[in-house]
Write a structure and sequence with these properties.
The complex is a heterodimer of chains A (86) and B (135). With 86 residues, chain A is mostly helical. Chain A has 6 helices and 2 strands; from the N terminus they run βαααααβα. Chain B is flat, with a radius of gyration of 21 Å. The chains are: A mainly alpha (86), B mainly alpha (135). The A-B interface holds A 20-21, 24-26, 28-29, 32, 38, 40-41, 43-44 and B 56-62, 64.
């Protein structure tokens, strides 16, 4: 999984230490995430997205491993009319 | 007294070394009461030292690291002690003096695996395992 934490940190002028403090984690965790060595939990990813004011997918980019089977999106078995929901 | 993470680590290391040295000394003297008495203040001081750090010391990454380390440690210890225990038991005719050590190792491997299974079941249920959750 790739991420743009370094970019968003630069945009918000935050050091790794400051971001770690905001998120309630250690600086080592921020370093590991930035290097792509550790994938954060959903909870931490949401917190990070909230701090930067963006969506999770703006920060984290999921990349399929070439060895693994390609994932195709499932077609829903039930179709609903979006006009009925509002 | 608040201290930083580095000071706390040094402090805890000193406490461990002193406590283990004292407990070892009293164990060598064959005095179990003094062993218990020496461990108790060490444990209390260790806890105080750990609590006195204001900054974050442990987070989800540390939890993941310790999960992995525990899993590998259990696997390595259980298989190594079971195997060495069985070898020592099998050698009981040539070396009867190793037999009890062999039983101790083999039973400790069994005890560890039983404890692991019980804890696995507990945490599996705690993190949402339901036997028939399919809708």
């Amino acid at each position: 999984m790739k991420n743009k934490i370094k970019v968003y940190r630069a945009v918000h002028d935050l050091t790794q230490e400051q971001l770690a403090k905001e998120l309630g984690v250690t600086r080592q965790t921020i370093i590991a995430i930035e290097k792509g060595k550790y994938n954060p939990s959903l909870d931490l990813a949401f917190k990070m997205a909230r701090i930067f004011g963006v969506k999770i997918e703006d920060i984290f980019v999921y990349e399929e491993s070439p060895q693994k089977k390609t994932i195709h999106p499932l077609k829903p078995s039930i179709q609903w009319d979006s006009s009925e929901t509002g | 007294m608040p201290m930083d993470a580095r000071d706390s680590r040094i402090c805890r290391l000193i406490i461990i070394v002193v406590t283990v040295a004292l407990a070892g000394w009293f164990a060598a003297m064959a005095d179990f009461v003094l062993v218990i008495i020496s461990i108790a203040p060490g444990a209390i001081l260790f806890y105080i030292c750990k609590r006195s750090v204001a900054e974050i010391q442990e987070d989800e990454r540390d939890a993941r690291v310790s999960e992995q380390a525990s899993k590998v440690a259990v696997a390595v210890f259980a298989s190594a002690s079971a195997l060495s225990g069985l070898i020592l038991i099998a050698l009981r005719i040539e070396h009867p003096e190793y037999m009890y050590a062999g039983f101790a190792l083999a039973f400790s491997a069994c005890a560890l695996m039983i404890l692991y299974s019980l804890l696995y079941g507990y945490y599996n249920r705690r993190y949402g395992y339901e036997p028939s959750d399919e809708e």
